[in-house]
Design goal:
Layout: H1 23-39, E1 45-52, E2 58-61, H2 84-92, H3 113-121, E3 125-132, H4 148-163, H5 207-214, H6 220-224
Family: Belongs to the peptidase M14 family.
InterPro entries: Cytosolic_carboxypeptidase, Peptidase_M14
Organism: Petrolisthes cinctipes
Length: 243
C-alpha cells in the first residue's frame, strides 16, 4: 500500500522522510545510512516493488545519468552496471519485458525510493520493479492475466537473477558491460551469464548538499509540496494513477 495513515504517498517521501509521519521510510533510510556510512558495507542493489494498473508485463525503472533532468548528472558517465539487473531479469523471468523498462531521472521523481537511494547512497543498481495488475503482451504468458502462479515464478526468477550478482569472478571489462551483453531473450534462463563484481566508490554527498545544489532548478512550490509533482504523463505512474 503506497499511502500511509497520513494519506500521503509514501513513495514520494524518500528525499526527506519525517520519523513521526513516515516511520517506515525514515528507518529504512537509516538502515542504509548505517550500512553504508558506519559499517562500510557495499550495497549493490536496491529495489522496491510496485503494482502497475495500466502497463503490461513485469518491468523496472532505473537511473541513468544521461537521461537525467539535472544537467550536472550528465557530466559523469553512467555506471556500467546500471542496467545489469534488468538484463539478467529478462533471461530469468518469463513475465519480464526489458523493452518496457525506463531509466529516466525526472525532477518529479527525486523523492521516490529509487532516485533518492541512487543519488544519496551512490547505488547504481537502484530500481523500482513494476508488476502489471493485468497481464502480459509478450512471452509465454502473452494475452494471459498474471495469477499468483506467475507472480511466484517471477519472484523466483528475480532471486535467480540476483544470485548472479554474488559472483566472485574478477571485474568484467567493457566487452561484458550491460550495454554490450547480448542476453538471449528467448531462453529465459541465466545459465552461462558471467557477472563480475565491481567496486563502487560511495558518495559523500549528503541530502543537504544535494538540496542546495539543485535548489536553482526547483521552484518554491516544488520544494514545499511534493504532492504536486505528479502528472498524467509521468512514466512511473503506477497503481493509484495521478495524485
Amino acid at each position: 500500500q503506497r499511502c500511509g495513515l497520513t494519506d500521503e504517498d509514501l513513495n514520494r517521501r524518500w528525499r526527506a522522510p519525517n520519523p513521526t509521519l513516515h516511520p517506515t521510510i525514515y528507518h529504512a533510510k537509516s538502515l542504509l545510512e548505517y550500512l553504508v556510512g558506519v559499517v562500510g558495507t557495499r550495497v549493490r542493489v536496491f529495489c522496491d516493488l510496485h503494482g502497475h494498473s495500466r502497463q503490461k508485463n513485469v518491468f523496472m525503472y532505473g537511473c541513468s545519468r544521461s537521461l537525467s533532468w539535472w544537467p550536472p548528472d550528465k557530466d559523469q558517465p553512467d555506471h556500467p552496471d546500471f542496467m545489469l539487473l534488468p538484463r539478467l531479469a529478462q533471461n530469468c523471468m518469463a513475465t519480464f519485458s526489458l523493452s518496457d523498462c525506463h531509466f529516466l531521472i525526472e525532477r518529479a521523481r527525486e523523492a521516490t525510493a529509487r532516485v533518492a537511494v541512487w543519488r544519496q547512497f551512490d547505488i547504481p543498481m537502484s530500481y523500482t520493479m513494476e508488476a502489471s495488475t493485468c497481464g502480459c503482451d509478450q512471452g509465454p504468458y502473452k494475452n494471459q492475466h498474471l495469477s499468483t502462479k506467475q507472480l511466484l515464478e517471477s519472484g523466483e526468477g528475480l532471486c535467480v537473477a540476483l544470485s548472479y550478482l554474488t559472483s566472485s569472478t574478477p571485474d568484467i571489462d567493457n566487452t561484458n558491460s550491460p550495454s554490450n551483453m547480448e542476453l538471449n531473450r528467448s531462453t529465459k534462463v541465466c545459465d552461462g551469464v558471467g557477472v563480475g563484481v565491481r567496486k563502487v566508490v560511495l558518495s559523500e554527498r549528503s541530502l543537504g548538499d544535494f538540496s542546495s545544489e539543485v535548489a536553482a532548478f526547483w521552484s518554491a512550490d516544488l520544494l514545499h509540496d511534493d504532492d504536486d509533482l505528479d502528472s498524467d504523463e509521468d512514466l512511473d505512474l503506477d497503481l493509484y494513477g495521478p495524485v
